[in-house]
Amino acid sequence: MDFLVKANEIKDELIQIRRDFHRNPELGFELHRTSQKVRDFLEREEIEYRIVAETGIEAIIRGGKTGNGKTIAIRGDMDALPLLDKKNASYSSKDMGKMHACGHDAHTTMLLGTAKIMNAMKKELKGNIKLFFEPAEETVGGARLMIEQGVLENPHVDAIIGCHVDEGLPVGAIGIKNDVVYAASNPFKITIYGKGAHGASPHKAVDPIIIGSNVIVAIQTLVSREVSPTSPAVVTVGTFNGGTAQNIIPEEVTISGIIRTMKLEDREYFKSRLKEIVESVVKAFRGTCEIEIQESYPCLYNNNEMYKFFQRVTTDVLSDKNVNIVKEPTMGVESFAYFSLERPAMFYWLGCGNKEKGIIYPAHSSLFDIDEECIPIGVALHCAAAFEFLNNN
């Protein structure tokens, strides 16, 4: 089955869909237009679906052949970013301050293309395909809510696939990695309370700026001295706020940042030790503090068997030279991680860069774009993986 040929037959339709999404970006769970467009498409194709996670969608294509009853899911995220679109294109965002700067418009489009092709051949499938259109990937992670609302059951999902466009890879190529792929993240906020005084009388103060400075230095030892050098981890302080004038020692300061780890055990250790270190340093300098550590996205793990299966399938579609083995994980985060902790998962990077077309700008930047030739490639890979998993795996 040449799914690349089938995907290219609907390429023009898919490009128009992607450009419509790109012109009309929406944020978080506020995906009312986007979600409606997806539902309209599914209804035209006579694909059953239900609404989940506010504006998310779970669709299903039920196979017509007798088989082992397996079900594979494919995820596509839908939300945009709060960013000004500065590129000059006919499909640039019409909504000032909102932009598809991370390729989710392409992910959604590829999932629709997959739905169209696989639904047309559902009588040949020995199992089911679920399609997850996820909201709020860039914020709180709609995947978690989708799981809570039962998308992995009825029927039971046996494996799941997801992807992200990557401008660092040329169109026509993909990147795959086994084991841990993305980091876990834990944003934190520290409020330090001291005692205010005149800048000329520091001995009468308990200076929260000095305390905060020592806290920042001390928590960096988590990475440099308390985790193995072979285990990637990052503690970043992004804000340090306090004070109103040059000659006033303030009463309090706030510090915020984020922890990123690659192992579940490191994640738990860092959360515990950050609290211990901060409390100890603050106490040593006679202050008090409040510490908030948020639970954000977990690590994303690719299942070993799914990785080998997907490598074989994609090599058949694209050839060896276009399937790049990625050795190092990224410290970024991805809400697909929630799915990867529940089911055997495979997440890959789809090349969308093209230097000749000037498509070189990074995701989450105001000039980000994709070479739309990547869309039928992504569709073909989704289709091939789903078909092989259900019929020949």
SSE layout and pairing:
Elements: H1 3-9, H2 11-23, H3 32-44, E1 48-52, E2 56-62, E3 71-77, H4 104-120, E4 128-134, H5 142-148, E5 159-170, E6 174-176, E7 179-182, E8 184-193, E9 197-198, H6 208-219, H7 221-225, E10 233-242, E11 248-249, E12 252-261, H8 264-284, E13 288-293, E14 300-302, H9 304-318, E15 323-325, H10 336-340, E16 345-353, H11 374-391
Parallel strand pairs: 3-4, 3-5, 5-16, 6-15
Antiparallel strand pairs: 1-2, 2-4, 6-16, 7-14, 8-12, 8-13, 9-11, 10-12
Helix pairs in contact: 1-11, 2-4, 4-11, 6-8, 9-11
- From N to C, what is the helix and strand string? HHHEEEHEHEEEEEHHEEEHEEHEHEH
How big is the Rg? 24 Å
Helix share bin: 25-40%
Mean pLDDT equals 97
CATH level-3 fold name of the largest domain: Aminopeptidase
Amount of beta strand: 25-35%
Distance between the termini: 15 Å
Class by alpha and beta content: alpha/beta
According to DSSP, the number of beta strands is 16
Widest β-sheet, arrangement of strands: 1-2-4-3-5-16-6-15
Taken from the alpha-carbon principal axes, the silhouette is elongated
Number of helices: 11
CATH architecture verdict of the largest domain: 3-Layer(aba) Sandwich
Within CATH, the superfamily of the largest domain carries the name Zn peptidases
Biggest pleated-sheet summary: 8 strands, mixed
CATH class of the largest domain: Alpha Beta
